[in-house]
């Protein structure tokens, strides 16, 4: 069997030498170094509590990463409206939860996130504006609306949703398993269903996909809608693990998922990337804030690190695209 | 196309005043009438006009630099937090007993380094400037908070205070300087070879490169220019406020890019737009801002309005023949 590699050469299929395997190896090494260095400074880092803390943040960041990965692989560039859609979902979940209970709350939360995604997708299809600009503007307006509608912090009552947020199964929190479930289902959907393959094809080359009869408009609405759905799930998971929610809580959820997706080998050009490698990316990026906190640094350092990591990831991707085109 | 060859005078005239500028000026006049009808006793008073013009001075200065850079396709969303960062560095240097000029020099050198960082990622690695500078924006915000230890730092410089609050015939001197800067920039862009190179580099980078224009170097310099002017804005804010505020520059990037987009610039291609339009755009936005303040509207409305302005302005660019995203 022969496959086409990044360099355009024809090589024998050797799965361990594929770009995805190389990315996975690099991510594992960096993750090990990060854990090693942090544990070297503070041996208490390697403990059950830290593992749980990382697993909790992995759940929210992971679900958001899955959504971003689908947008990126289908050539939709990025969705920058994550803070607004996640906050909308979390706040609506909180409101419904305090009146009607867990299940309606979760459904309403997911639906709210999905609605924001569909708005993004429709705006992109109707106006043909670059998705980065559309989602940036939607996020800005959305944060304004949310701050006006939910001015103060919102308390969450004890409920079944909280049990979901607190319970464990085989050592990991329930919500982390839920995240892994979403990731595997999405991976299967992308590779095994017609819709998934259409989305990947649209990212690989939009003119070619168009000539094959794939409706790009439908792909955009579907992928951004899916991103919204993921943001909705992330919002519900966020609500499940907090006692108080405010509209500005989610602003630091924007960069980590994007960086995880790009570092895992998803190219902003679209069409490439592996969902399995994404697990490593999510793990690495969720460990960064926790290990900075363990090292005794303030949240401002986390902000600095988030920004620099994003710039690094995008530069690496830009460099790869440049090399491929050469 | 009826006229293929246009004279030099016509070309210069066209670059100085474009149609979108005329629309903006008409819009400004309408807004002034609306403001006068809504707040007859408050809006057109001498003190209110002074408030508007002194609030507009520093953003106008940064807007002009950013608009010149955008002509070459250079987008720098980190200008907002660059302003805060510059102010913080300047105030800290003053606190350590440096002469104001030396403190300003240190801040400006830091700004050059940040500009070069952005430029390296975007020009050499070919990364998407919108995402890179969004990362830098967050990183700089974190760095500013780390430097200031999360509290605003007082730094009163008498000379700078007098300079930033000086008026000439009732008009703030800073505003006059910004207007002269804008006039000079638009004339230089229209008549000099460098001006044409900037436009060409943004219009079609590949062709300009082949025609012998050093596109990469030009963009590099413009990234540094934007960062330096933003830092200068931060220093001027320290002069006005007598302190480096931790919240300085939050959201300033949208206050700067919204008028630029209104003036007919494009985020996805360079070479279109003119500086005088950006000046008119700043005037429109500051008047809207002032009216919202006078009528004590919830400040979050401004977020929503800015988001809507960005979408409408970019959609207008798509209709004019800008990049159509599918």
Structure description:
The complex is a heterodimer of chains A (326) and B (326). Chain A has 326 residues and is mainly alpha-helical. Chain A has a single domain (49-325), classed as Orthogonal Bundle (ABC transporter involved in vitamin B12 uptake, BtuC), CATH 1.10.3470. Chain A has 13 helices and 6 strands. In chain A, a hairpin with a 2-residue loop joins strand 4 and strand 5. Chain A is globular, with a radius of gyration of 20 Å. Chain B has a domain at 53-249. Chain B has helices spanning 8-16, 19-38, 46-71, 79-95, 100-124, 129-148, 158-165, 173-191, 193-203, 205-210, 215-241, 252-262, 275-294, 301-319; strands spanning 153-154, 167-168, 171-172, 243-244. Chain B has a two-stranded antiparallel ribbon. A two-stranded antiparallel sheet of chain B has the order 2-3. In chain B, helix 3 (46-71) packs across helix 9. Chains A and B meet through helix 4, helix 5, helix 10 and helix 13 of A and helix 5, helix 6 and helix 14 of B.
Summarize the helix and strand pattern of chain A as letters. EEHHHHHEHEEHHHHEHHH
Portion in beta strands of chain A: under 5%
**End-to-end CA span of chain A:** 27 Å
Q: Give the overall shape of chain A, derived from the CA principal axes.
A: globular
As a percent range, the share of helical residues of chain A equals over 70%
Mean pLDDT of chain B: 88
Strand content of chain B: under 5%
The CATH first-level class of chain A comes to Mainly Alpha
**Alpha plus pi helix count of chain A:** 13
What's the end-to-end separation of chain B, in Å? 28 Å
Supply the number of structural domains of chain A.
Answer: 1
CATH topology of chain A: ABC transporter involved in vitamin B12 uptake, BtuC
Rg of chain A from C-alpha positions? 20 Å
Content-based structural category of chain B: mainly alpha
Structural class of chain A: mainly alpha
The string of secondary-structure elements of chain B, in order, is: HHHHHHEHEEHHHHEHHH
Please identify the oligomeric state: heterodimer
- Main beta sheet of chain B: 2 strands, antiparallel
> What general form of chain B does the structure show?
globular
């Amino acid at each position: 069997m022969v496959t086409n590699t990044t360099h355009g050469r024809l090589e024998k299929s050797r799965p361990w030498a594929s770009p995805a395997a190389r990315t996975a190896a690099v991510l594992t090494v960096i993750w090990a170094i990060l854990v090693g260095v942090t544990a070297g400074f503070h041996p208490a880092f390697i403990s059950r509590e830290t593992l749980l803390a990382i697993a909790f943040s992995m759940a929210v960041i992971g679900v958001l990463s899955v959504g971003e990965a689908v947008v990126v692989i289908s050539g939709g560039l990025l969705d920058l409206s994550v803070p607004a859609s996640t906050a909308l979902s979390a706040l609506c979940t909180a409101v419904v939860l305090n009146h009607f209970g867990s299940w309606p709350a979760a459904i309403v939360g997911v639906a709210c996130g999905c609605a924001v995604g569909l708005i993004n997708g429709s705006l992109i299809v109707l106006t043909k504006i670059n998705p980065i600009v559309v989602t940036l503007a939607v996020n800005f307006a959305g944060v304004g609306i949310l701050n006006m509608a939910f001015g103060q912090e919102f308390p969450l009552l004890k409920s079944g949703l909280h049990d979901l947020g607190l319970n464990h199964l085989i050592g990991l929190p329930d919500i982390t398993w839920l995240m892994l479930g979403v990731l595997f289902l999405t991976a299967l959907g992308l590779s095994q269903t017609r819709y998934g393959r259409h989305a990947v094809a649209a990212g690989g080359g939009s003119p070619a996909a168009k000539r094959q009869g794939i409706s790009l408009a439908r792909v955009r609405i579907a992928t951004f809608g899916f991103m919204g759905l993921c943001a909705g799930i992330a919002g519900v998971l966020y609500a499940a693990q907090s006692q108080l929610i405010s509209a500005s809580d989610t602003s630091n959820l924007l960069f980590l998922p994007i960086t995880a997706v790009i570092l895992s080998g998803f190219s902003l050009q679209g069409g490439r990337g592996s969902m399995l490698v994404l697990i490593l990316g999510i793990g690495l990026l969720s460990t960064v804030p926790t290990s900075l906190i363990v090292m005794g640094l303030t949240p401002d350092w986390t902000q600095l690190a988030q920004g620099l990591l994003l710039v690094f990831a995008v530069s690496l991707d830009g460099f790869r695209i440049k090399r491929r085109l050469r | 196309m009826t006229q293929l060859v246009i004279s030099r005078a016509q070309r210069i005239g066209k670059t100085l005043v474009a149609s979108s500028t005329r629309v903006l000026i008409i819009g400004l006049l309408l807004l002034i009438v609306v403001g006068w009808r809504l707040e007859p006793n408050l809006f057109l008073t001498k003190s209110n006009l002074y408030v508007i013009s002194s609030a507009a001075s520093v953003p106008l200065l940064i807007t002009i630099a950013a608009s010149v850079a955008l002509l070459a396709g250079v987008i720098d969303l980190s200008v907002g937090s660059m302003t805060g960062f510059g102010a913080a560095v300047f105030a800290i240097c003053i606190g350590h007993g440096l002469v104001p000029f030396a403190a300003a020099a240190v801040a400006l050198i830091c700004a050059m380094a940040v500009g070069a960082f952005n430029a390296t990622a975007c020009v050499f690695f070919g990364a998407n400037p919108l995402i890179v500078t969004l990362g830098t924006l967050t990183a700089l915000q974190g760095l500013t908070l780390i430097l200031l230890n999360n509290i605003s730092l007082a730094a009163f410089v008498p000379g700078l205070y007098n300079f930033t609050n000086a008026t000439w015939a009732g008009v703030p001197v800073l505003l006059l300087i910004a207007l002269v800067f804008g006039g000079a920039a638009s004339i230089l862009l229209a008549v000099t070879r460098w001006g044409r190179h900037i436009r060409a580099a943004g219009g079609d980078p590949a062709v300009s490169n082949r025609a012998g224009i050093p596109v990469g170097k030009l963009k590099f310099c413009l990234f540094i220019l934007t960062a330096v002017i933003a830092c200068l804005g931060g220093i001027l804010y320290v002069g006005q406020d007598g302190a480096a505020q931790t919240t300085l520059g939050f959201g300033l990037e949208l206050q700067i890019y919204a008028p630029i987009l209104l003036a007919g610039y494009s985020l996805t291609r360079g070479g279109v737009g003119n500086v005088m339009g950006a000046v008119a755009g700043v005037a429109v936005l500051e008047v809207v801002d002032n009216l919202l303040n006078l009528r004590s509207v919830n400040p979050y409305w401004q977020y929503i309005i800015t988001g809507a302005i960005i979408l409408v302005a970019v959609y207008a660019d798509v209709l004019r023949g800008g990049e159509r995203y599918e």
